[in-house]
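Thread title: Can someone regenerate the structure for this chain?

I was given the following input by a collaborator and told the matching structure tokens would be attached. They weren't. Posting the sequence so someone can regenerate them.
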Amino acid sequence: MNKAEYAAKAATAAFKKEERRRETMKAMDSYNAERAGELKKMERLRALRLAKEAEDAAELAANPPPTVAVKKRTRKKAEAES
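Best answer:
Regenerated them for you:
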């Protein structure tokens, strides 16, 4: 192999290596953009959920559910029913 062939192979290899690096960077940029979008969406949904939970808690505190008196069974009634 002469010097010209060697130089051509080296240039081709360097070009391919640079091309792979550019493609990798594009893929990383795309991934990071998608991830940022997902994080933003998760943050928005989390804020909505927390606001709803706070609203539900405030409503429950303002209007507690009615308490129902539970009648205790006497021993004689429990034995008679079994």
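The CA atoms of residues 75 and 81 lie 10 Å apart.
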